[in-house]
Amino acid sequence: MNTPHSMTPPPTAAGPVFSVRNLWKVFGPKAERVPADPELGALDAAGLRERTGCTAAVRDVSFDVRKGEVFVVMGLSGSGKSTLVRCLTRLIEPTSGTVAIDGEDVLSMDTGRLRELRRHRAAMVFQHFGLLPHRTVLDNVAYGLEIQGVGRAERRERAAEFVSKVGLDGMEHRTPGQLSGGQQQRVGLARALAVDPEVLLFDEPFSALDPLIRRDMQEEVVRLHREEGRTMVFITHDLSEALKLGDRIALMRDGRIVQLGTPEEIVGAPADDYVRDFVRDVPREQVLTVRSAMRPALADERETGPALAPGATVHEAIEAVARTGQNARVVEGGRCLGVVDHAGLLGVVAGVPAATAKAVA
């Protein structure tokens, strides 16, 4: 795949929801001198700490979050991802750079505008649910609306709607102590949705859950996004979670974004050895699409064989080719874009060029 990896993608026609440019967050004495001094900014973590006593959690980060997308920020512990998401709403104050939401400068917001941002425009779902133990599910979900000043009858009606939306019908009058971990996380999700935010910010919300419950919650996020098309920024250290949820993924290391792209771009064309090592064990056929295995169709191949959409995965193509014994056609709008055969599919799975795979086959 020859797909470019721009750290700052071009804005959509509607403009980005969040636009971040040259963002730094440095902890320590006289932190502002670090981004202002290229020599200090170029030091690694140990060198910077030795020279200045400072730690740079976020280093010169730029990206846009497009309307309606799930934008995933992932990295190992200490990579800066949670600090980054908190900078978006100034739960942590950035050291330098710019953050804008719908073109409005977040860093220049006064207390009132910042409160409005956090209450109405960007809702956070944390790893620790933060439910009020003495309140019922319904009243926990309605809490954000209560803070907004919505009347009791209206907020309970809206809360009931979102309790149902996240699959907790019949549990409205239970307290958090009567719920499982997955059910409590659903309450946290419903509470965030109830205030009707423009953006949902998730800070590793499922990392404390058991694997099966975690998978259920991932599928719940996918379902809600499909139904509502709401913009989401999702923080995780789990690559499989990032690949499952993300329209685009920003992979962080030591406070920097080392690659930003679609799941297919990151798995199919790693930017460096660090990313390559990160995605080494990913089943490529589950992520890459048939475009990565496609070759031009010969004249007699355009009308025969199973038809696949360009977005079909290589795994789906393998099943089709194995089932029919024929090469598969990649078809869009009634036009054959190309063909995938055994050699091309083998090349994708093995991570080698199609010509090499053909020779092996």
Automatic annotation (TrEMBL):
InterPro entries reported in the protein's UniProt record: AAA+_ATPase, ABC_osmolyte_uptake_ATP-bind, ABC_transporter-like_ATP-bd, ABC_transporter-like_CS, Gly-betaine_transp_ATP-bd, P-loop_NTPase
Any Pfam family matching the protein: ABC_tran
Keywords from the named record: ATP-binding, Nucleotide-binding, Transport
Entry's transmembrane regions: none
Source taxon at top rank: Bacteria
Domain ABC transporter stretches: 43-279
Molecular function GO terms recorded: ATP binding
Family to which this protein belongs: Belongs to the ABC transporter superfamily.
Name of the protein in question: Glycine betaine/L-proline ABC transporter ATP-binding protein
